[in-house]
Design a protein that fits this description.
The protein has 109 residues and is an all-beta fold. It has a single domain, classed as Sandwich (Immunoglobulin-like). Helix content is 0%, strand content 56%. It has no helices and eleven strands. The strands form two sheets. Strands 1, 3, 4, 5, 7, 8 and 9 form a seven-stranded mixed β-sheet that branches.
Length: 109
């Protein structure tokens, strides 16, 4: 599983959204963090698993919490690693009820 430090998400949809992290805890249970804050239309944000309480070394996936819409996931797990200089970048497009998540690659910071 590829190691990353954080996610970069861009909101190119017709809605306000917020990043969340879905992760697997040490007991194998799927957990969800609080949201990282709203991202206005046309803007981007960094989503840092550590600042949202995710333990280092946990499998993590980016989730898009869409205000007044259907939430989406990035669909791929990574390993959280605070010492990594890699991040996974995603953007989201569409409308509240018909959105699409786009993977833009794993990049170095």
């Amino acid at each position: 599983m590829q190691k990353i430090k954080q996610f970069r998400m861009r909101n190119n949809g017709g809605f306000v959204c917020a990043g969340q992290i879905q992760y697997i805890d040490q007991n194998g249970n799927v957990q969800m963090t609080e949201t990282a804050g709203n991202i206005p239309i046309g803007q981007g944000e960094w989503v840092d698993p550590g600042s949202l309480g995710v333990p280092d070394g946990s499998p993590i996936m980016l989730c898009f919490n869409i205000v007044l819409g259907s939430n989406r996931t990035a669909g791929q797990y990574y390993m959280s690693d605070t010492s990594s200089n890699q991040y996974a970048e995603y953007d989201i497009t569409g409308t509240t009820l018909n959105s699409h998540v786009h993977f833009d690659g794993v990049k170095s910071s």
